[in-house]
Amino acid sequence: MLKYVLLGALGYQPLTGYQLKQFVDRTAQHFWYAQTSQIYRTLDSLKQEGLVTSTIQEQESRPDRHIYHITSAGEVDLREWLARPMTEVVQIKDELLVRLFFSAQLDKETLLTQLRLQRALHQQQLNFYRTDVVEQIRTSVETRPELKRDALLWDAARRSGELGEIAYIEWLDETIRRIEDEF
Asked: What is the pTM of this model?
């Protein structure tokens, strides 16, 4: 999947590995996460497959920068992948649910403290979607009006994250109440 995140990002403009990491962290963090080492390994694979190329930009006081460009083959691969129907529900992994599932041996207050902390973190994430991400999308369209269609889809992805956080917070509130009343 990281392959297509990187190809999609490079479809907008050539970027360095560091800039790709920033792109993933800024735009895709609520639905995809990647470590810097994963990004560089994937870029190496994409180069071997002929889906990206790189040019070297010399720098005086720093190591040279590798700037990655999507190739025509990379554009075709990305378009084919985007057009391929998804025929299965994607399974999620959630560490909090694993912890909660096995937490009957914890005392009530420890469990409630952990759940309240998660609620606060999810509230922060919700606020991030409602403010920072909205602003990033608005700024992108102001500086590059040709991305208006892209921005519509970026906002749909942002909205998914927002609604997911709303549902998660509601579930946490319900779970906290149940533990307070029944545990």
From this structure: 0.85
